[in-house]
Design a protein that fits this description.
325 residues, mainly alpha, DNA-binding, Arc Repressor Mutant, subunit A, Endonuclease III, domain 1, 3-stranded antiparallel sheet
Amino acid sequence: MTSHPLPPVPAAPSGPAAARPAPAAATGSAAGSPAAADLHDLVIDWFDEHARDLPWRRPDAGAWSVMVSEFMLQQTPVSRVLPVHKEWLERWPRPADLAAEPPGEAVRAWGRLGYPRRALRLHAAATAIAHRHDGEVPRDHAELLALPGIGEYTAAAVASFAYGQRHIVLDTNVRRVFARVVSGVQYPPNATTAAERRIAAALLPTEEARAARWAAATMELGALVCGARSPECGVCPVAAHCTWRLSGSPAHDGPPRRGQTYAGTDRQVRGRLLAVLRAAPGPVPRSALDAVWSDAAQRSRALFGLVQDGLVEPLPGERFQLPSR
DNA sequence: CAATCGTGGTG
DNA sequence: TCACCAAGATT
């Protein structure tokens, strides 16, 4: 198999003066170049054979299933999402079903997926869909983006995966794949950059259905083969095209990537407080919450934060519960 | 732009 | 063991 050079990626504008309309003639556009088409085939063919059979990818999965999965998958691994996603779709088959229940039920059913504000936002998004979108998950990227808890990535993912549209889908997996294959570095930057968007745009297949397939395929490649810790280049369909690999897989240089500490933080306290409230069928006395953390100052700060975030509802008589509305 | 926001698996 | 990582969004 012949190894083609990578498609050229448009250079970054060198300054404000360089801001200009996109070239009228997209001659030599990377997406249409032979090398790009080659990459598309390799990755999509690989995907056809190795894609995981996930519930939200099945033919009968609707946009709501996709949307719920995207919320749950924000910073949470597939293996832990699977059982909760199943419960949610059985209990709330449509957005209106979720919207009909108090937000606290969403927080409770969220279980231990982490970042429970996502549950609150998903409930709020479902409510907005029920009221303003006739109960249907919107197809329009801008309308999706306007929903609570949906950012650039999730809007593109829902539009692409649920509705087959052509969008730049830049998640951590895709960014890592492009960092290696195209940019020749081990890891992408901490925050998504304009350069990354240019690369993604340049490589996005022109045809809509193929673009959607490409988005899912590049994500899956990043998840299954081009992992952060252990890239398995031996089975990678584009190893022969990978700039990083071809240059000897150089280790990441520069400042260490941000690490997240957890032990002893407010987040840990919030987690413990909320765990008590999730487990209780109804209101809980303050004494039950006091038991989870010894430092009173930090404890009250965490509880206050939860109330402020709408995750906890204070009641008369020093009692607390999950939000009833 | 950097900090914040949970939780559990893993190399 | 423990730092790192996992389909980000919001402020």
